[in-house]
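Reviewer 2 asked us to include a model.

Predict the structure of this chain.
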Amino acid sequence: MNPLLRRNLFWFVTNLLCVLFQQITKAANDSLFFMYNVIIKILKVPFNYQIRTDLAAYKILKERD
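Predicted model (C-alpha coordinates):
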Protein backbone atom coordinates (compact mmCIF):
# COMPACT_ATOMS: atom_id res chain seq x y z
CA MET A 1 0.00 0.00 0.00
CA ASN A 2 1.55 3.31 -0.96
CA PRO A 3 2.03 5.96 1.78
CA LEU A 4 -0.14 8.59 0.09
CA LEU A 5 -3.10 6.24 -0.19
CA ARG A 6 -2.61 5.12 3.40
CA ARG A 7 -2.55 8.73 4.62
CA ASN A 8 -5.69 9.62 2.66
CA LEU A 9 -7.44 6.54 3.97
CA PHE A 10 -6.41 7.48 7.51
CA TRP A 11 -7.84 10.99 7.14
CA PHE A 12 -11.00 9.65 5.52
CA VAL A 13 -11.58 7.26 8.42
CA THR A 14 -10.85 9.88 11.08
CA ASN A 15 -13.19 12.40 9.41
CA LEU A 16 -15.87 9.75 9.18
CA LEU A 17 -15.47 8.99 12.89
CA CYS A 18 -15.63 12.70 13.76
CA VAL A 19 -18.83 13.15 11.75
CA LEU A 20 -20.37 10.06 13.35
CA PHE A 21 -19.38 11.31 16.80
CA GLN A 22 -20.93 14.72 16.08
CA GLN A 23 -24.17 13.11 14.93
CA ILE A 24 -24.32 10.89 18.01
CA THR A 25 -23.68 13.77 20.41
CA LYS A 26 -26.22 15.96 18.58
CA ALA A 27 -28.84 13.23 18.91
CA ALA A 28 -27.96 12.85 22.59
CA ASN A 29 -28.29 16.60 23.14
CA ASP A 30 -31.66 16.67 21.38
CA SER A 31 -33.00 13.82 23.48
CA LEU A 32 -31.66 15.43 26.67
CA PHE A 33 -33.29 18.72 25.70
CA PHE A 34 -36.55 16.87 24.99
CA MET A 35 -36.42 15.12 28.36
CA TYR A 36 -35.64 18.45 30.06
CA ASN A 37 -38.68 20.05 28.40
CA VAL A 38 -40.92 17.17 29.41
CA ILE A 39 -39.71 17.34 33.02
CA ILE A 40 -40.20 21.11 33.10
CA LYS A 41 -43.76 20.73 31.76
CA ILE A 42 -44.54 18.05 34.33
CA LEU A 43 -43.18 20.25 37.12
CA LYS A 44 -44.87 23.42 35.87
CA VAL A 45 -48.43 22.12 35.81
CA PRO A 46 -48.84 21.53 39.56
CA PHE A 47 -46.89 24.71 40.28
CA ASN A 48 -49.20 26.82 38.09
CA TYR A 49 -52.22 25.10 39.61
CA GLN A 50 -50.92 25.94 43.08
CA ILE A 51 -50.44 29.60 42.16
CA ARG A 52 -53.95 29.76 40.69
CA THR A 53 -55.54 28.21 43.77
CA ASP A 54 -53.53 30.57 46.00
CA LEU A 55 -54.74 33.57 43.99
CA ALA A 56 -58.33 32.33 44.16
CA ALA A 57 -58.04 31.87 47.92
CA TYR A 58 -56.52 35.34 48.23
CA LYS A 59 -59.38 36.88 46.24
CA ILE A 60 -61.97 35.09 48.38
CA LEU A 61 -60.25 36.26 51.58
CA LYS A 62 -60.06 39.81 50.24
CA GLU A 63 -63.77 39.80 49.37
CA ARG A 64 -64.59 38.70 52.92
CA ASP A 65 -62.92 41.73 54.49
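The helical segments are 3-64. The chain is about 95% helix and 0% strand. We have added this to the supplementary material.
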